[in-house]
Specification:
The protein has 136 residues and is of the alpha/beta class. It has helices at residues 19-27, 47-55, 73-85, 97-102, 121-127; strands spanning 2-6, 14-16, 34-36, 62-63, 94-95, 107-111.
């Protein structure tokens, strides 16, 4: 299930932590409102839109040890399993918390279903001091 966490009023500043959400934001004509995207985002709403975002300095605020284009299925499975077993890590994905906060998003698009699919909701809530907020 998807989540939109709104942090402050004012101009729309969208941080998309899901490639599909980035594509939707671009398709809705809101690409100029994007202030942060993931390492996996490749369209907004198309490749030219993503190139334009990156050219204007929109940062990629996630990274992952999993590089599916360079790893076998067994290597991917091993990396995912190791990540899930690491007690100090909330997600398979690392979030550049400082960069995300510097972008001052008013909306963070994320999800709460799968920590293997994207940055964990728990990590995003921690970044914005909402760790005690109730999940919907």
């Amino acid at each position: 299930r998807g989540r939109a966490m709104i942090s402050t009023p004012g101009p729309l500043r969208i941080a998309s932590l899901l490639p599909s959400a980035t594509e939707i934001v671009g398709a809705l004509g809101l690409g100029e409102s994007l202030v942060a995207v993931t390492h996996c985002c490749d369209v907004a709403p198309d490749e030219a839109g993503m190139r334009a975002l990156l050219a204007r300095g929109v940062p990629r605020v996630t990274r992952s040890p999993v590089a599916p284009e360079a790893m076998s299925q067994a290597e991917i499975d091993k990396a995912v399993t190791a990540s899930q077993q690491a007690s100090s890590q909330l997600s398979l994905y690392a979030l550049d918390e400082g960069e995300l906060q510097r972008q001052r998003p008013s909306v963070v698009l994320t999800q709460a279903l799968c920590d293997v699919c994207a940055v964990s909701e728990e990590l995003v809530r921690r970044v914005f001091g909402q760790e005690d907020a109730a999940s919907d």
